[in-house]
Amino acid sequence: MYPENLVMPMKEELTSVGFEDLRNAAEVDAAVNSKGTVLVVVNSVCGCAAGAARPGVKLSVLGTKRPDRITTVFAGFDTEATEQARKHFMPYPPSSPCIGLFKDGKLVHFVERHHIEGRSGAQIGDNLKAAYEEYC
Q1: How far apart are CA 122 and CA 52, in angstroms?
Q2: C-alpha 104: how far from chain center
Q3: Over pLDDT 90: what percentage of the chain?
Q4: Strand, helix or coil for residue 103
Q5: In the chain, what are the domain boundaries?
Q6: Taking the CA of residue 98 as centre, how many other CA atoms within 13 Å lie in the half-sphere pointing to its CB?
Q7: Which CATH class is domain 4-135?
């Protein structure tokens, strides 16, 4: 488990722009199963989270079309919440970072780590904006 002083600045990159920090299984289930669209970002300490995932998801929610709720869990810190989010991402294998978009409790779009690595924040943002156009 990562130390809090390492994780908190990375969490704040998302929570400071309105992402809801989910810390346990019940909060994840309530968010995912809520009516409408919900973005769930599995945040991470890795370089692709810092260089592409966090910047990309932040860019993605600046437009007029966006999910009703934007949420995040942190791998290696919010262990219970992350494990529960990953159950909702099935059949995709666990990865960090990753990003799931749900509509009325159903996973409709998923960005795995291997789709994040080697891409820019702008590319991740564009990918998510296209999903928002279709589902939000």
Answers
A1: 8
A2: 17
A3: 95
A4: strand
A5: 4-135
A6: 22
A7: alpha beta
Of the residues 25, 30, 45, 46, only one is catalytic, namely 46
Question: One of 48, 49, 53, 61 is an active-site residue; which one?
Answer: 48
60-to-5, 57, 74, 86 alpha-carbon distances in Å? 27, 5, 19, 22
pLDDT tens digits for 29-86? Answer: 999 999 999 999 999 999 999 999 999 999 999 989 999 999 999 999 999 999 999 9
Establish whether the linkage from the previous residue to 97 is cis, with ω within 30° of 0: yes
- Asked about 98 being catalytic, the answer comes back as no
Q: Quick check: is 46 catalytic?
A: yes
**CA nearest neighbour of 7 among 81, 115, 116:** 81
pTM for the whole thing?
0.96
Q: DSSP letters of 15-56?
A: HTTT-EE--SHHHHHHHHTSSSEEEEEEE-SSHHIIIIIHHH
Rg of the chain over all Cα atoms, to the nearest angstrom: 13
Say what the pLDDT of residue 63 is.
Answer: 86
